[in-house]
Amino acid sequence: MGLARSLKRDTGKIANMTTRFVRLAALAAAALLAGTCLAQGLPVVFGEPARTEKQAEAPRLRMATPAAAQRVQLAPVTDQDVETVRAENRRARIARDTGVNLKRVVVGINRGLEVAKALGWTQVAGGRAARLAVTSPDAAAMRASIDLLGVPTDTEMVFFGSRSPDRLFGPYRVGEIADRSVPWWSPMTEGETLTVEFFAPGQGAGSDPRIAGVGHFFTSPAERGIDKRLQDIGDAGSCNVDIPCSSLTASSAFRNVAESVAQMVFVDSGFAVLCTGTLLNDMDASTQKPWFFSANHCFDNASAPFKTAAQMQAVANTLTTLWLFEASACGSGTLNPGWQQLGGGATYLYSNAQSDALFLRLNAQPPNGAFFAGWDANAVSVGSATVGIHHPQGDLKKVSEGSIVGFARWDSTSTANQYIEIRWSSGTTEGGSSGSGLFTLTGSQYLLRGGLRGGSALCTNPTGTDFFSRFDQIYPAISQYLSVTPSVTPFANVTSLWWIPSESGWGLNLIHRSGSNIVFGTWYTYGADGKRTWFVMPSGSWSSPNTYSGTLYTTSGPAFTGPFDPALVTITPVGTGTLTFSDANNATWTYSVNGLSGTKSIRRFEF
User: Fold this and answer.
1) SS3 state of residue 26
2) Which of 76, 116, 238, 535 could form a disulfide with 137 if both were Cys (CB 3.0 to 4.6 A apart)?
């Protein structure tokens, strides 16, 4: 009865509060939905910087004398070897129709070792060490395939190349390599000689590591060296735009999403191959799993006979990725000295030849400075402005700007409107750009909308178009990874207005979608200046049947009195919110906004 009397007594106040709720809800929804297209009903996830849990261990050499390395000298590559690379790249260029190309690029070959070189171990502080150096004459860069079967798990490996002997990669511990039943591929080193130092802290029994083969690169992305017989690869066309040269670098949204893009270096069918991929965020705000989105055809799986899952995993095992791999300054032509290489391969999760989707999980966390890109699972519109970020010809990271001119088939195996067709107004794409992300600006962030398959766009064909997969059509197949783990079933549907009866004028509007169990929350309250404001929590996760948490954002946009300009919409993360329900009508709202925290006991608003 007390509540009933209160409701009757405050009828005018309640009516005014309800009106305010509705008005604020409309404004909040307009500001957020204009940027995220949530009205279409599918998730939109914003990006966030990589959180490095601990400082990575710096690689160091244990042996003081480089001359102590055991050495293997291979014969020079032949003209026939060079021609196999040319032929493979020609095959990609004619994969669809005349003038429309797949855009992965082959830059090297695998070479076997006829004789396994024995290791000469030397006692060093803390254990024993051995070095092995392999030279493939005139290689611009090298990788090694190492047989680790039976090698003690505490053995460490550090790598360096003859062109940059002071740049060390590692340490890689044998026990941290998931699959040692097949040879493991090292990171890429610069120059014609790759050296690996093995360090064994113990004296336990086991097999010695053995180099089973090497990858000979005709071009080195890191050093820009190119074999004179293959001048057609390694340098992007002159119309491409370096990241620091783009006017977009004035935007933090662009600078962030650019660091979600990495160059892919991997081995497939005896070739060293380059593509581009994007690190993706997911809906779970409590973790950062390194999901990685690229193109199915990068793993040469575009036509029958298609690779099995095991064969796709074999390619994923060889993956190494290059991060922050861009020019140090506009016009410098030099590589950012802070670039990082992330070895260790990836776990293959999903691919589809028709949609050209490739979805992986990297086996190691990305380096400091990387960014987990956001994405939009709703359809994108014709005419939308787009940005492509990629590594053409294995060159430093580039940006292309354009717009969507329509939707199309790729070939007779694809369905109608399965690909986004883009025409560029600045820049282009080339071999090596395959798999690179297509992004649209949504409020204050660029969100992924698809990945490059190929097209006719080139510096020499500026009116040509490119074709990108559609993330909105791919999302249902990979949503199990990107959405909140459905192992927790909420205790009830919590859709309602929630408030404190004694604190009329503020509260939360929760919309609980039963299919995905995502709760869209809008918190109407007052700022430090006493003026009304709101925060939105568009997604989150259930950590228990009665506890839900998510990221809080503020939004702003153009005044309602003038024309609507989506470019003026901004969405900024400001903190977190947690709802803990004691029953279907009572809950605790715990929040942290810009460093200020608090807790409120709220209850369902009864109409």
Assistant:
1) helix
2) 76
Q: Do domains 66-219 and 239-482 have the same CATH topology?
A: no
Reported as a pLDDT band with limits 50, 70 and 90, residue 229 is very low
What average pLDDT does the segment 504-522 reach?
89
Classify strands 169-173 and 371-372 as parallel, antiparallel or unpaired: unpaired
**Per-residue pLDDT tens digits for 516-551:** 788 999 999 998 888 889 999 988 888 889 999 988
What end-to-end distance do the CA atoms of the chain give, in Å?
A: 15
Among 334, 316, 232, CA closest to 275? 316
Q: Among 3.40.50.1100, 2.40.10.120, 3.40.50.300, 3.40.50.800, what is the CATH number of 239-482?
A: 2.40.10.120
- The SS3 call for residue 184 is strand
Distance CA 537, CA 556 (A): 15
Residue 376: both structure tokens together: 């939009």
Ranges of each domain in the chain:
15-43+486-604, 66-219, 239-482
More confident residue, 34 or 177: 177
User: Rounded distance, CA 526 to CA 521, Å?
Assistant: 16
Short-list 291, 301, 261, 298, CA closest to 277? 261
pLDDT at 97 over 80: no
Over 50: is that where the pLDDT of 21 sits?
no
Identity at 231, one-letter amino acid code: Q
Q: Output the pLDDT for position 221.
A: 60
CATH architecture under which domain 15-43+486-604 falls: Beta Barrel (2.40)
Q: Residue 11, exposed/middle/buried by CB under 10 A (0-12, 13-18, 19+)? A: exposed
Place of tokens 């604020």: 24
